[in-house]
Amino acid sequence: MRLTFTIQRFNPETDQHPHQEEYRLDIGRGLTVLEALIRIKNELDGRLALRYSCRSAICGSCAMHINGTEKLACRTSVRKELERHGKITIQPLPNLPLIKDLVVDMAPFWEKIRAVTPWLTPITHPTKRYGPSGQLRLLPETYQFHNVDACIMCGACVAACTSHEVSKGFLGPAALAKAARFVADPREPADAKQVRLSALQEADGIWDCTRCNMCVQVCPKDVQPMEAIIRLRRSSIRHGLTDAEGARHITGFVDLVRQEGRLNEALMPLKVVGTNLQRILHVLPLGVRMFFKGKVPLPFGHTIPGIEQVRAIFSAARRRAGHG
């Protein structure tokens, strides 16, 4: 079968903007997108630039934007893409600087990985956790990494991240999932975990994720970075880090439901912005519009029937979590 591949091309030495070029190729059954690209380079256009290495979905080098979704070219079937989309369109990963054709600059990606300190904090005073030869012991029953250690650093999650699209400073799903891996590691000292979590409260940290779920959808290794970010948020609150607006939104929501049995939209903004007068004035017009739309209950209205049962659920949850 003869098939047309539409590939984004860009040569910084000759082109001002990226453009599309079409290549027709005779293909057989079982061909992957990466194999097709290699054939196009070898048989039709030797100038085509792409990045690949293992060809086995291990190294992550061949991550690309294929038919509108971030995928590993080496594990993407041409036949299945054609059946699903009726075409094959290949572009470089978005949200990363373009070098040439399908090759992007991964330097910003690695800078964010390094920013979360992706290694264990050294322990200055040896404890019983050190083995006889000086290693830190990690027993299987002492940890749960939730598969975040399966990340191959392909960058697909960053390319698909809607938060990163509007804020290039956002640490991104891969780096935050890596941070979650070390927060969950029992070999990491408690004070070091506190330092890690404190650093992630800043702008472009864990509270800037919009939970769009795109990183989960495109991850080729089922790392589920968004779930890792949620675990970091929960851990932050457990460690008493509740000053960020995102954290106040969660704790305020819980407090209102526990107190009134429902969400009180009139009080919720105050729970989030606190005593920041500038932020209060910023949300005030929204509150006025909500009031006229009938979306705001009385700030100090009565509680719902059965409130004691609701509070009993919260009390049971606290006891189960070990808070007494």
UniProtKB/TrEMBL annotation:
<dbReference type="InterPro" id="IPR017900">
    <property type="entry name" value="4Fe4S_Fe_S_CS"/>
</dbReference>
<dbReference type="InterPro" id="IPR050573">
    <property type="entry name" value="SDH/FRD_Iron-Sulfur"/>
</dbReference>
<feature type="domain" description="2Fe-2S ferredoxin-type">
    <location>
        <begin position="1"/>
        <end position="96"/>
    </location>
</feature>
<dbReference type="InterPro" id="IPR001041">
    <property type="entry name" value="2Fe-2S_ferredoxin-type"/>
</dbReference>
<dbReference type="Pfam" id="PF13183">
    <property type="entry name" value="Fer4_8"/>
</dbReference>
<comment type="pathway">
    <text>Carbohydrate metabolism; tricarboxylic acid cycle; fumarate from succinate (bacterial route): step 1/1.</text>
</comment>
<dbReference type="InterPro" id="IPR017896">
    <property type="entry name" value="4Fe4S_Fe-S-bd"/>
</dbReference>
<keyword id="KW-0003">3Fe-4S</keyword>
<comment type="similarity">
    <text>Belongs to the succinate dehydrogenase/fumarate reductase iron-sulfur protein family.</text>
</comment>
<dbReference type="InterPro" id="IPR012675">
    <property type="entry name" value="Beta-grasp_dom_sf"/>
</dbReference>
<dbReference type="InterPro" id="IPR036010">
    <property type="entry name" value="2Fe-2S_ferredoxin-like_sf"/>
</dbReference>
<dbReference type="InterPro" id="IPR006058">
    <property type="entry name" value="2Fe2S_fd_BS"/>
</dbReference>
<keyword id="KW-0560">Oxidoreductase</keyword>
<dbReference type="InterPro" id="IPR025192">
    <property type="entry name" value="Succ_DH/fum_Rdtase_N"/>
</dbReference>
<protein>
    <recommendedName>
        <fullName>Fumarate reductase iron-sulfur subunit</fullName>
        <ecNumber>1.3.5.1</ecNumber>
    </recommendedName>
</protein>
<dbReference type="InterPro" id="IPR004489">
    <property type="entry name" value="Succ_DH/fum_Rdtase_Fe-S"/>
</dbReference>
<dbReference type="InterPro" id="IPR009051">
    <property type="entry name" value="Helical_ferredxn"/>
</dbReference>
<keyword id="KW-0411">Iron-sulfur</keyword>
<keyword id="KW-0408">Iron</keyword>
<feature type="domain" description="4Fe-4S ferredoxin-type">
    <location>
        <begin position="199"/>
        <end position="229"/>
    </location>
</feature>
<feature type="domain" description="4Fe-4S ferredoxin-type">
    <location>
        <begin position="142"/>
        <end position="171"/>
    </location>
</feature>
<keyword id="KW-0001">2Fe-2S</keyword>
<keyword id="KW-0479">Metal-binding</keyword>
<dbReference type="Pfam" id="PF13085">
    <property type="entry name" value="Fer2_3"/>
</dbReference>
<keyword id="KW-0816">Tricarboxylic acid cycle</keyword>
<keyword id="KW-0004">4Fe-4S</keyword>
